[in-house]
Amino acid sequence: MTRVKPWMVVLLVILATAAIRIRLIGTPLERDEGEYAYAGQLMLQGIPPYRLACNMKLPGTYAAYALIMGAFGQTIAGIHLGLLLVNAGAIVLIYLIGKRLFAVSAGLAACAAYALLSLSGGVLGTQAHATQFVVLAAMAGVWLLLRFEDTDRAARLPTPEGVENGVSPETAPFGHGSETRYADTEPRPEGAVCGRLTGSGQFPHPSAIVAATSGVRDLSPADTSVCATSGVTEQVRLDSTSPAAKFAGVTSGWPILFASGVLFGVAFLLKQHGILFGVFAAGYLVARRQWKKLPVFLAGAATPFALTCLWLWRAGVFDRFWFWTFTYASHYGGENSLRDGAAALAETFGPILWQSAALWALAAVGLVLALLGRRFFVPALLLFSFAAVCPGLYFRPHYFVLILPAVALLAGSRVGDKRLSAAVFAGVMVLSLLVQRDVLFRMSPVEVSRELYGLEPFPEAIPVAAYIRDRTHPDDRIAVLGSEPEIYFYAHRHSATSFLYMEPLVEAQPFALRMQDDMVAELERTAPAYVVRFPIVETLSLGGETPARMYKWWADYGPQHYRLVGIADMQQDSATEYRWDAAAETYRPRSLYHLAVYRHK
Predict the structure, then answer these.
(1) Which residues have CB under 8 Å from 428's CB, separation 6+?
(2) Backbone region of residue 363 per phi and psi (left: phi > 0; alpha: psi in -120 to 50; beta: other values)
(3) How confident is the model at residue 551 (pLDDT cuts 50, 70, 90)?
(4) 118 in Cβ contact with 356 (< 8 Å)
(5) How are beta strands 494-495 and 477-481 bridged, if at all?
(6) pLDDT at 134 (0 to 100)
(7) Which of 43, 52, 253, 545 has an alpha carbon within 20 to 30 A of 229's alpha carbon?
(8) Among 17, 38, 66, which Cα is nearest to 499's?
(9) d(CA 585, CA 569)
């Protein structure tokens, strides 16, 4: 392939994915998106996280949403346009990594596979979940980690005498073993020659050395296979005991390695699960015996979190931040048993597998071949990616986005060689598209929300928030007795309580009753102008291990101070029924899945 054609294919993949995402750009925000959007909105107003809105998530995705909304507007479309760009960046990185590890055709197949997998309804791919952002940061870190290795190898050639034959850097595999060979997936490019570093000659241009060493693994100091094109036929010998070689071995590529660490640190800051990608990278450096450079990587990885702690400390919210993201989160992560986790995994992974079964089968074949060929980089990435899905044993659908880069790389790893033609891979992609055709091509944005989330009130939150916004002053506070923070975002009104979700207040964790008391005190002190209830949350909380004290409080307090002025009644097989003002007082909802709006008397 020429240099232009592969990037044209990558561009076509991005444009095809963008066309689907733009068609669904108006899909209502779900509650996680609502939380990120509301927290980002507050940040744009100069209000730090954990002051008016608290949850156990780290603030990285809040900041990402703030940047997106600052650029594209505080709208559903603006947020999903940001997701489109984040996903496009991940697609490019998957191509670069696949090309670096396997071959150009494998990189192209991997980026196409990731584009489809990350858009699938099974992983809630139409929504801007934090895991989409984690993938971008983590894959950028992986790419720089591989670039560091290339730079490090080039720096280990300080006393060259020339290159006599080599393989193309675009086609060399990233495998184990000291012998470099062409990947089976690509023909030799014109002008490329293969051989070993041996004896005499003249020093090649530095760019030739970098090109020669990219894609080559396990170089020996004195006798190493390298890559060269365009008639580079010099030879190189490394004196690994010279002072220059020792210095180069310690300092070469450290800015790249530090930057890689920073990106893995950002992945953690976006979502706690992202720390497993950093562990993978650190483990890789240990396996490569890069002991002297490991501190550089770790310093980079710690920098984003350290700066965030400093910022939140200066903002006066560090204590709240630490309580929610570590103290409470540690209890939340230990609530599920292994049995619960196994059931959740089976329930969640089934639809994901069904939607792209052929791609997952290709990935399984790629995994077996990688292990048989003793190429452990991507299998190790797969292992740590799956570990990132597992914390808490909740196995939420969007957690599986974290494993998709490794799956895509494995699925595309053999494309273009004698084992798997590009045409067969294209057929697998088409089959996966056909399975998902309704969500991707036919359903409206609201229908997609219903398909993915059932009767959750995500579409209804938009008119409810509009009703409240039109009848309140910007300084008025409102409250949601449920778990719908997107209402705060849509209404552009501050919450009367710092508790965005009801679940932490009724979970079997030691802070639950204290949280209920704190929320009641905040609501009584603030006296919100409007209160929105989602009664199904209260119903599901009954019979739990923690008494739902606050719901009993509302049963007494609510009728004394608030009047019902709105109902959004979600029906399974029909349109939502809306009643406002006087009509709401006499309407009796037919479902527990309804939103009730109350105005302060």
Answers:
(1) 358, 359, 362
(2) alpha
(3) confident
(4) no
(5) parallel
(6) 98
(7) 253
(8) 38
(9) 13
